[in-house]
Design goal:
The structure is a homodimer. Chain A has two domains: 172 residues, HUPs (Rossmann fold), CATH 3.40.50; 93 residues, Pantoate--beta-alanine Ligase, Chain: A,domain 2 (2-Layer Sandwich), CATH 3.30.1300.10. By secondary structure, chain A is of the alpha/beta class. Chain A has a six-stranded parallel β-sheet, with helices on both faces. The first copy, chain A, has a three-stranded antiparallel β-sheet with strand order 8-9-10. Strand 5 of chain A pairs antiparallel with strand 5 of chain B, so a sheet runs across the interface.
């Protein structure tokens, strides 16, 4: 497996692949891999001739009081896991390579980023869109694969790619879960054993919401009342948001008529976890 | 010559050229060609295997009270001039193709756009950077050629390309002038005969500034006092700005030590004209 650290080498490598007719499949990550990341890499392996995985903990998407410094990292373990999952290249740029002196350009997707994590984490999606625009220009992929766990991120990236006419396909893959339903996240390592138990309130809320929807409930307020009441009774939890939104606009909706998503962000202890359910889709939670 | 109107056709056309080893040279324009545009196309002809010229009057870079609606247009004349100058393709997208429903993504180059036209025309460079990012993703050029008359625009685009790691070269070409020194501009057609005479105050100011610099003057304030005093005495003129800035940061400077530019924006009647001089460079004004 190739490890590439500079933008120039990455661009030359991908340009040569493209010119020889090879299909480049890209999985952008912040590293510290779990099965969710590995499932994206396996999908990339199926869809591309060359699988590029980037590992970069992007400072511009973290707020000043967030967990940038303590975000978990383990390059050697990640390298081995990526190789086993079928990656051909790890792109591992430095901060100096990504944001050199005089850096000053940002991409703003203005509407779909206003609600949910955009409200709770000002500047987060500006950082996400910017680093993805940069990475896409570096890796020049034919397709890039993202997890649906970060649903608003996926919508934002799709919107940016369409709006800026970036010539690549964005693929969203289902959330990978622990056996008991907890969505996999690099941040799960922050949880104490008691918090790990409380963290199940997110996936269980999705399951409750799906059940209500399947029984015919279409009033967003009634579903949310049920969910927030339930989460408030779980120890060590604090709801950051619990909303039902249009998947097109990411604005709150009252009635579940067009495609809609229930999105949750809950602090469990001091760890902020997110999860979501697109109404009408499958949900494999026991 | 090929005329292409859709993003998809343009991308497929350029991707095929790139894959066959051809070099794509791009000249983005708002049309209504004068010799300045044609000189950029002739340069593109020298540097590329295929010359693509876009014609698009971009609404997002015009302010609400600006001249979007009356901006001069003449496609048939432009088509002939571009063909004579060596263009292979005119890319001529519609507003619906460029900014479809739900459009919401903008590129902001935050620092070099603060001064000069960025002060006078809020949102202008956001529109310029965004449309150039889009056009570069559509045309996929190896190089793009811009005139130095729009100096702050050139600095902004270079900054965006470097920051977002767009894999193309940006080439700046000297300003083309009328015999009497007036910088060529599509907006010169707005000038009455008397205003056309007053409009010479811009190029004559540059020449005065160059003479002062060549005589050893390095105090920006003294050069600007001389220039503004001169322009204020010319009929039908109103200075929008007259500044001396660093070409790296585009911030005002007091002493001409590192590379610096004198930038002028002057209303002549109701027509706003710009011009600039990078100290130390040639200036062919009689």
């Amino acid at each position: 497996m190739n490890i590439i650290g500079t933008v120039q080498e990455m661009q030359r490598y991908s340009e040569a692949l493209r010119n020889s007719g090879k299909r480049v499949a890209f999985v952008p990550t912040m590293g510290y891999f779990h099965d969710g990341h590995l499932s994206l890499m396996r999908e990339a392996r199926k869809r591309g001739d060359c699988v590029v995985v980037s590992i970069y903990v992007n400072p511009t998407q973290f707020g000043p009081s967030e967990d940038l410094d303590k975000y978990p990292r383990n390059f050697e373990r990640d390298r081995q896991l990526a190789e086993d999952a079928g990656a051909d290249v790890i792109f591992f740029p430095s901060n100096a390579e990504m944001y050199p002196e005089h850096y000053q350009t940002y991409v703003n997707v203005e509407e779909v980023t206003k609600n949910l994590c955009g409200l709770s984490r000002p500047g987060h999606f500006r950082g996400v869109a910017t680093v993805c625009a940069k990475l896409f220009n570096m890796v020049k992929p034919h397709l890039a694969i993202f997890g649906k766990k970060d649903f608003q991120q996926l919508v934002t990236i799709k919107r940016m790619v369409a709006d800026l006419n970036m010539d690549l396909e964005i693929v969203g893959m289902p959330t990978t879960r622990e056996q008991d339903g907890l969505a996999m996240s690099s941040r799960n390592v922050y949880l104490s054993p008691e918090e790990r138990q409380s963290a199940l309130c997110l996936s269980r809320s999705l399951k409750k919401a799906k059940e209500l929807f399947d029984q015919g409930e279409r009033d967003a307020g009634r579903i949310l009342d049920e969910i927030t009441g339930y989460i408030e009774g779980v120890p060590s939890t604090r709801i950051d948001y619990a909303r039902i939104c249009s998947t097109t606009t990411m604005k709150d909706i009252d009635r579940l008529e067009d495609e809609s998503v229930m999105a949750l962000a809950v602090f469990v202890g001091s760890t902020r976890l997110i999860d979501n359910y697109v109404f009408g889709e499958e949900l494999n939670i026991e």
